User: Fold this.
Amino acid sequence: MSKKLTFARYEAVEKVFQDLHAKRTLVHFGSEFSQYDVLAWLLEKITGKATIIISSYTASEELGRMLSLLREHGLVEKVNVILDRSAAHNVAFKYIQSQTDGIRLLPNHSKTMVVIGDNCAAAVLSSANMNGSIRTEQTLVTLDESIVKQTWEQLAKIVS
Assistant:
C-alpha cells in the first residue's frame, strides 16, 4: 500500500482502539464512528491485508464505497457479506454486492465482523449496522484467538 488511508473518523477510531495489541480486547460505548470506519482502521493498523466476513442487518452505500477504497489500497483479499433478506430492497444493494466476493441474504439481525489478516486476526461484535448512521453503539474488538476462531467458523458456515 503506497498511500495511508485517511477518512473523517480515523482519529476517533485510533483514539479508542490504539491499545488493542496490548489489551487484546477493548469495548467501546459511544457514537464517534461507524463499523466500516473500524474495519478500515483494523485492516491498516492491526491485521494487514485480509479475508473478511461481515454480518449486518442492513448496510448502506458507504459500506460499498469503503470496500472499494480498501481494495484500491490492497487491504482486501476477499470479502463476504451476510445481510438480512430485506436488504435486497435497499437502493444500494447492487452496488454493495459489486464490491464483495459474495452476499448471503437470510433472516439476520447480527452485527459481526471477522478479519483474518496477514499480521493477525480480529473479531468485532457490535450493536451497530454497516451504515453511516452515527448513533450511540457498543463495539467489542478482540484479538482473542478463541473468540476469533469461533466467530469465523460460525460465519464461514453461512457464506460457504
